[in-house]
Amino acid sequence: MRRSKPRCCPGYARTGASSRWLRVPTRCCPGGARTEMAGQSYADFMERVLALPGAQARELGQVGEYPIYAVEQGNDPQRPTALITGGTHGDEPAGPAAVLEFCRQGGGAWLEALNFLAIPCLNPHGYAHGIRHNGQDVDINWAYKRDDVPEIQIVRQLVAGRRFEFVMDFHEDWESPGFYLYELRRGSDPVGARIMEKVSCFLPLNTQSVIEGQPAWGGIIIPTAEKHEELRGEGIPVVLYDHHTDHLVVTETPTILPLEERVRAQLAALEVVVEAHLP
User: Fold this and answer.
1) At a CB cut-off of 8 Å and minimum separation 6, what does 158 contact?
2) Is the pLDDT of residue 31 over 50?
3) Residues 6+ apart with CB under 8 A from 63
4) On the CB side of 12, how many CA atoms lie within 13 Å of its CA?
5) CA 14 – CA 98 distance, rounded (Å)
6) Which domains, and CATH codes, for the chain?
């Protein structure tokens, strides 16, 4: 959730021996989601989203020339829904690639317990231009209070009146030497340590004692009450945790490493979170 910015286990076929379904491709997404972002064609990306098998894609709104879509998997009203987001910052391509790969593979056995709602790319202008901000030169992630940011309006409309089993937000960090995450959870034990253990098979971890100006333990940032209050109402993830979920995880992969490995790490983290919410 940064505010500004100017390998082991090779060839794993799955994210772990206990994996129920989620395949992590050795060569990322062959024949499926393209994870190499050369050119960053948003039209091409959305063509792949709309072609997803067994998923329901719907347009949430239009921002300039770019439509923003949500993808739904599972529609059982008796089951809770998890929210997964990527592409809030346009220069963080592993997030959209990971969301697209998750949607391409389908929810599998997880759909017996959960519905999934995903926003593959919240910032299509930034994605298409390879930049952090949107077309207004606004950092969407920290603009929730603003009424003049169309991407924020889309998020507000999507989550209005809803609760989510968990919210997972994929991000990246160009300065970090390794993977780290933010986690907030009410009522149950956090899963950050389990995520770090699994991700360590794919990426080095950022084990610095201070990350992004906040205390960290083993690559896990748990915002203090003071920091949480400072960010209240501004950051999309903070607002979602305050009003729409009891479990928030924000992952940060290091962009200095190959995109394929970063996507694998994001999917591995997602698997840990999902399995923590299965009955």
Assistant:
1) 60, 70, 117, 119
2) no
3) 124, 125, 134, 135, 150, 151, 154
4) 25
5) 14
6) 42-276 (3.40.630.10)
Residue 65, helix vs strand vs coil: coil
* pTM for this predicted structure: 0.87
CA distance 154 to 268: 28
The residue type of 2 is R
Q: Where are the beta strands (DSSP E) in the chain?
A: 56-63, 66-73, 81-85, 115-119, 167-173, 180-185, 210-211, 214-217, 220-221, 247-254
pLDDT tens for residues 207-241?
999 999 899 999 999 887 677 677 666 899 999 99
Return d(Cα 102, Cα 189) in angstroms, integer.
25
Note the Cα 178 to chain centre separation in Å: 17
